Structures
1.
Amino acid sequence: MDNVKTKKTIKDYLPTRRRLIQLYAALLHNANLKGYLSGQIFTGNTKYLCAPGLNCYSCPGAVGACPLGALQNALASSGNRAPAYVLGILMLWGLILGRTICGYLCPFGLVQELLHKIPSPKIKKSGLTRALTWVKYVILAVFAVAIPLWYVRQHIPMPGFCKYICPAGTFGGAIGLLANPANEQSLSMLNILFTRKFVIMAAVFALCVFLYRPFCRFLCPLGAIYGMFARVNVVGVKVEQSKCTGCGLCVGSCKMDVRRVGDHECIHCAECVDVCPTGAIALRAGKRPLREKKKDKAPGAGRYVAWALALAVLLGALVYFNGPDSPGGAAPAASQTVPEDDTPVGPEVGQRGPDFTAPLYGGGRFSLADTRGKVTVINFWATWCTPCVNELPHFEKLYQTYPEDVAVIAVHSDLVTDDVDAYLANFDYTIPFALDEEGVVAAYGGSTMLPQTIVLDRNGIVTYNKVGSVTYEVLESLVTPLLEE
Amino acid sequence: MIKGLRVMRVLIGVMTVAVCLLLVWQAVDIYRTGNRPENFSAPGVRIEQVYSRQIVAERFGRIAPAVYAYLAAVAAGLVWQAAAKGREKKPRPAVIPPAAERPAKYRTQARLILAGAAVALVVLGIMNGGARDVLVKAVNICTECIGLG
């Protein structure tokens, strides 16, 4: 009975140090805990920084930007500026930590490992799984790079991986938001896109039960990027060649598809450290060992100091992100009542739409009051929002079809990243485009979701106000009954 | 006990696949029902939305007993597995000769060059507005990007 141990201690059931670091990192990535209660995403300045791990920035808890989402959007904006910032950040993460991020810091890696704990027959690595590891490079090239760059030519921001594949976005972003009753209205947006991504997510989760980290091994473009730094990353498992006998136990016991310790498939989990009979392998930061083969000596004081510091950082982050003054989503505008009319002013259906004026692109000013007597369609959009730019032709067609009876105004979000005038010069739109300078989006109950469409009847009463894409047919069905009144 | 453990693992494996298929089936069926011709009053205009809290609760309510049974089986399996920890014979790791280590020539120089380039790119990105782009995208939800539609 080799390797059979019958006497167990409490230590056998405690989480490993790596698991504790993974839990810590997942909590730090998602420190905005109050977002889960409010159903709103964090909107503070920490989102300037790309987090190291794959963690959707539309997740209510996320306090940093997803590096992969940011990369795709930077490539989608590459017609205007070079994607230098995101590339620089990715290079820094890759150079310092490389795929150690996958092994220790990525929240989605933790999810996969926990699912793999579910008792089931496990599929071992083989030549097939090794071959499949190249799929993630194809996904990186096609979905994360080629698709965004291809759509740049058509002036459409298109993060292909987020839109078509990312199960972390479906799990953390879509389901994380939809699970909150405050976002019930968003359920009306769900259709083929969500169904397809839900199926992909379910398949990935089911695979995780049988296979170790299938998403990291076969699909993750972020892992593919970090893997490119395998030969230079500072923190990672390293082999002392003078001690190595080439016995192959390290590669044989590894659950990833590595061909040697520390290669581009290695996530530096350091489980091979204990397997090596000669103690040739160690997790190192440069030359400083972080984990070596177990020795019979008590952990030094340095480890306790490191954990105390880490806990202090986590507590500080939790207080900062969840305190009463922390930035959250925009609060919905409160209803007001105008003295000469009993109809309350507000964004809800049945209320009178708040009046506003806004500067028009191309000169002049738009005033909502001037559209009274016409059915008015207000569209909130932005150049960086894919569904927004895709639906603009529908508003244009509506405007062309009912020029006398329907007023259309497209209001760009106050967050401007591109030259909107230059963007509009690429098209022949005749509808007026304005900029939200005075909180129009907030006045109509908008917050962090785009696009949003509002329809007002001839008296300025809100008859429709929803977030999500619309088609021309939907717009016409909303407007036609109001024209007959 | 060890044989029982193996049977339990196979059973939970089968249940995992079954529950996953049930979830996928419900999601696909909700989509198909919502897109039937009788749900359209005009081309592209639906009478009932495809997904709603009511529809989701009703559909997933139907398979809830199977999901609860699965979760209970997983919990029991985890407890059993923990109890049997150490009694199972660990498979001897395969011996796969590692690929030859390529000599790390100029590693330090490569690190310095890459670090310099990365810092330069970050500074350039902050100056050209790329950092603000990241913030703007991260503080707004692009509904299509997370699969909402």
Note: The first strand of chain B starts at residue 40 and ends at 42.
2.
Amino acid sequence: MAVYLSRRLAALAITLLVASLVVFLVLEVLPGDPAAVMLGVNAREDTLAALRSEMGLDRPAAERYLRWLGGLLTGELGTSYTYGVAVGELIAERVALSLPLALIAIVLSTAIAIPLGVTAAAHRNRAADIGIIGFTQIGIAVPNFWFAILLILLFAVELKWLPAGGFAGWDAGLWPALKTLLLPAVALALPQAAILARVTRSSVLETLGEDYVRTARAKGLDRRAALWRHAVRNALIPVVTIMGLQFSFLLAGTIIIENVFYLPGLGRLIFQAIAQRDLIVVKDVVVLLAGTVVVVNFAVDMAYAALDPRLRGGAHDL
Amino acid sequence: MKRHFATLSLAAGLALAAGQALAAKDSLVLGMVLEPPHLDPTAGAAAAIDEVVYANVFEGLTRIDRNGAVKPALAESWTVSDDGLTYIFKLRSGVNFHDGSAFDSADVKYSLDRATAEDSTNAQKGLFEPIAKVETPDPHTVRITLARPTGNFLFNLGWGDAVIVAPENAADNKSKPVGTGPFVFKRWVKGDRVELERNGAYWGSPAKLANATIKIIPDPAAAAAAVMAGDVDAFANFPAPETMAQFEADPRFEVVIGSTEGETILAMNNTRKPLDDIRVRRAIAHAVDRKAVIDGAMFGYGTPIGSHFAPHHPAYVDLTGRYPYDPARAKALLAEAGHGAGLKLTLKLPPPSYARRGGEIIAAQLAQVGIEAEIIPVEWAQWLEQVFRGTDYDLTIVSHTEPMDIGIYARDTYYFNYKSAAFRDVIAKLNAAVEDKARYALMADAQKTIAEDSVNVFLFQLAKHGVWDAKVEGLWENSPVQANDLTEVYWK
């Protein structure tokens, strides 16, 4: 287990190093001068030079890369070119929104998807199954931003139960903050739930055909117990894999939903930073997200071990 | 009957009381599309900075009012010497910065020196370039000596880039702006909102609003939903002109179409072949149907222009008839210039919808006369680097939003690459002229000269789409400078 863990940690470090190099190089070749973006069309040459030197952009590329990398290692993420505040602070503010939002969405989508998927598999080719498949088909086909607009029109514009967007902030209290995250979480969760339900259904169907389920039934277990205790548990491995991917997506890939609900999340931060050439923010957020994906994958692997004892033992324990 | 009347008047009285209770509302949520990168107007070009802090948090010696007129602000009055070189400003007394420190002539000198310094990061450093020296004979007097007469100097001092800051806070103004204005900066939840509150110790008449929140909503559909749901009280620059009809039909909202300083142009690279040939530039001008562009790209909102000048300015000359839409004439001019077989040009389009939507329509119109315009969408950062600084383009569409900026055609290097001694002469005379009458005549000459040379295709003046709660009063209809001046805003 120790070898396994250290191998995973080494993989984490290498991934981050490669990610940092790639993002640095990509941003080097990307056209667009941060100083020109900030100072606009009337800026004079000497003003631009002054700002570039203030931001350290006049140093050679290798020096800037090493300095940035050194900063990352010591937890010093640098100062945003545009906002003029510490990037760490900026990211922390956004994570305080994006992480809870992603968690609510993943919990919601799991809570919807697993019962639906298992029910569909248990009633294969019957009315319930066909109904659920139809629902998931719609869920996958409907773009989430359009679904989000429908939610806003109904719950904010018509019924006025929930705000049309924005984030109240955690200092406004738990409920007001959650209230602002509810519609975005639903808009994010439903398409994810549709995908997850389909994966659950096919995975459960597969395990239902396995010998051990037949054995369990032959031992006298009723259908229900055999389904939940033997089939579903074994079917969860692909489901957890998809959930891991979805979580990474939810953390970073919510730019469109964050725009529709004008939420100040990580996705918006990186989008804005790219447009304004706030390169230091782009670099830091990309490395952070790459790190998160690796950590989530690691957590998924740990979950496999919990779900399937066979993956726990063996060579890794030596 | 009598009793009935009494009940009625009681009800009326109650309704009145309720009305008064409603009228007591003193907070406003204002929507904005772009978030300011920071809040220091003296260190950035983004219009969003001024749209939050101009006139609200920061003030200059002069200020520009809703009609574009120059008004006294921190300077109570001024005198200009006959040669137009010396300006003596009498400063208002009893003015304090939001941190309690007193405002005096030293702050003015500090602010202007900072803007002109070698390491200045002022985006409009050029505005201050004529300043030779700033002197402070006493705490309430500032004497500015110019190197050459500058007719627009008082207007220039009213720009957001010329606001007065205190030396002790200047470095922190990006995140915690400290000015002298009627609103005090409270906090900024980045990506979401900026909160301002009334300055109780303001030197002038206090703001009517106790609190103002500026909410950042980048998506047009989200902006429409936020106004409809009542989450946002006003959008001074509403991003979705396609939904204006819906708001106009709804009595809860007031829709105000105003004008901006944004001359929207199809810019041409005047030194690049074949655009160095005036016949080709004129052919393109004849090939573009402004009306179709305004209708198609801007949903009918926008005033056609025929030169680089705002139609609401008193010196405006209507030159929209100089190159009427005439594809046959365009083709003839192209043939005369030796391009009868057709032309291929690039058309680089920055992100705003006027450019992207307008560009597609213009490309189709150019195709009618045999010009194949290859559309290349670019981001702002790319546009600045490739088009604006690198002048690597044939055609581009952009709105020039700075007020009174016809002088850009006289610059040594500017991305249109227009070099006309005659035009530079007009601008030099304009800069030296102080009398309005003489200035207006020169402005008219300037407009005619660039139209005659067909430097760019002048499309339309960008409209300002205001949508707000019908009970909100006092917002600006037009934007002579980039600002959301909240000083006179109140609830009916």
Note: Residues 1-21 of chain B have pLDDT under 50 and may be disordered.
